[in-house]
Design goal:
This protein is α+β, with helices and mostly antiparallel strands. The chain is 17% helix and 37% strand. Strands 1, 2, 3, 4, 5, 6, 7 and 8 form an eight-stranded antiparallel beta sheet that branches. Strand 3 and strand 4 form a beta hairpin.
């Protein structure tokens, strides 16, 4: 009989002769699942806790004949001395066109002089959809000329709303 002899070649099927370790050298094997769960939790939390920042538009005037409804955002009223700025939204039921671009709504940043009863436009933006949504088809930012507030009409209503005491 031949004596049993170990081959000198290492076997790939048997573990090397090493002492057992109480910890794993490769902890990353269990981390991807943990990271994925944490990442998915954060994304879910972000989606559930975030809400769109819609302006609280308040109806000022609605006229069925012209197909226009006028809104203001009272939260944007910014007084500065005798002047006051606020955003106004004109919403149209029928399409309007300016410079070859159609629009359904118009946002205006207006400035009102409460002492001298006058107003002017600072920003004029027109949108392809209603309520200030859609593509901006027109945008003009400049300090327009002051115009007197007519004794009756929409500008009178807006001026009174802007200049009333909160």
């Amino acid at each position: 009989m031949r004596p049993l002899r170990l081959s000198s070649h290492p076997s790939y099927n048997t573990p090397p002769c090493e002492a057992a370790m109480p910890f794993s050298i490769r902890p990353f094997r269990c981390l991807p699942l943990t990271y994925c769960k944490g990442f998915l939790f954060l994304i879910t939390l972000l989606l559930l806790s975030s809400s769109p920042a819609y302006a609280e538009w308040v109806v000022v005037s609605g006229n069925d004949e012209s197909g226009m409804t006028v809104y203001v955002d009272p939260d944007t009223r910014l007084p500065k001395g005798k002047l006051l700025k606020m955003w106004i939204l004109y919403n149209f039921t029928r399409v309007r066109t300016v410079a070859g671009e159609s629009y359904f709504s118009n946002k205006v940043h207006g400035e009102y002089d409460c002492a001298q009863a006058r107003h002017r436009t600072l920003v004029d933006m027109r949108f392809s959809s209603t309520m200030g949504f859609g593509k901006v088809v027109y945008n003009k930012s400049s300090q327009g000329k002051w115009a007197p507030v007519a004794p009756e009409g929409l500008n009178q209503i807006l001026w009174k709303l802007a200049c009333q005491k909160p």
